[in-house]
Amino acid sequence: ELKRFPTLQSDIATAANEALEKFHDESRRTVHRLVEMESSYLTVEFFRKLNTEPEKNSNAQHGTGSSNSDRYTDNHLRKIGTNVSAYVNMVCDTLKNSIPKAVVHCQVREAKRSLLNRFYAQVGRREREQLGKMLDEDPSLMAKREAIAKRLQLYKSARDEIDSVAWK
């Protein structure tokens, strides 16, 4: 629809970019807070829910050259690494869901509200010629519309006058 009005389309695009930029820093701060919150809060429940695998007898896996304590340490470290990796993946998944919501909440929604307020104020102040230029409207078409609007107003006032006389 806006392709018919290239000047208006350009004004809207410029205003939208300015509005988004205005709330960009707030959005960035909120995202940083979310990441800090997730990285500093260790969820103990996550580790309680992890499936604990029974420790395997490592004689079959390793050669006879390593001692039982080395095999236990390797297996234990591997288990810790798996648990930490699973926790990091869970945090990443949480952030993948939370960050877009935070951006929409802090940036897009506020930019939309700001954009609407700006256009209400700016368009309301403009004169007819400025609005016509904004819409890239043909001057002869605009003059014809104004003449028709004046004629319509005359018809309405004539109808009101006839109605007021007819009912007395």
From TrEMBL:
Q: Where is this region: Disordered?
A: 53-74
Q: Which residues form the GED domain?
A: 77-168
Which SMART domains does UniProt cross-reference here?
Answer: GED (SM00302)
Swiss-Prot/TrEMBL keywords: Motor protein
Q: Does the keyword Isomerase apply?
A: no
**Keyword match Kinase:** no
Q: Give the matching PROSITE patterns.
A: GED (PS51388)
Q: Which domain of life is it from?
A: Eukaryota
Gene Ontology CC entries for this record: cytoplasm; membrane; microtubule
Q: Which GO terms describe its molecular function?
A: GTP binding; GTPase activity; microtubule binding
InterPro entries, A to Z:
Dynamin (IPR022812), GED (IPR003130), GED_dom (IPR020850)
Chain intervals with Polar residues compositional bias: 57-70
Please report the name of this protein according to its UniProt entry.
Answer: GED domain-containing protein
Q: Which organism is it from?
A: Genlisea aurea
| Lineage, opening ranks | Eukaryota, Viridiplantae, Streptophyta, Embryophyta, Tracheophyta
